[in-house]
Write a structure and sequence with these properties.
- The protein contains 1 helix and 5 strands; from the N terminus they run βαββββ.
- It has a 5-stranded antiparallel sheet, covered by helices on one side.
- It has one domain.
- Pfam families: FAR1.
- This is Protein FAR1-RELATED SEQUENCE 5-like.
């Protein structure tokens, strides 16, 4: 894979959308879809931190009443651990990659 497409801790982005688009392009190349897990905002509505994860992150919960479902569906949550966390550097007002898990 091309070096410029691989995310690294400390990478900087001008905006939260730029970081999301970068990770989404990376996910398409590697073979997974990306969703926004969470975004934290300050009182002015500025995103201060967030995390993007694979759309298949986690597992579907099982409930006590799920003895015999009416219909079975394909599993959509497979426990993929791919994620990228960002945080706003208040000095430069740029978003930095703070944590990273590869698929």
């Amino acid at each position: 894979m091309e070096e410029a497409l691989c995310p690294k801790i400390g990478m900087e982005f001008q905006s939260e959308d730029e970081a999301y688009n970068f990770y989404n392009r990376y996910g398409l190349v590697v073979g997974f879809s990306v969703r926004k897990d969470y975004l934290n905002k300050d009182k002015d509505g500025v995103v201060t931190s967030g995390r993007y994860t694979c759309c298949k992150e986690g597992f579907k919960p099982r409930y006590e009443g799920d003895v015999k479902p009416k219909r079975t569906r394909a599993e959509t949550k497979t426990g993929c651990e791919a994620k990228m966390g960002i945080i706003l550097n208040r000095e430069t007002m740029k978003y930095q990659v703070r944590d990273l898990e590869y698929p």
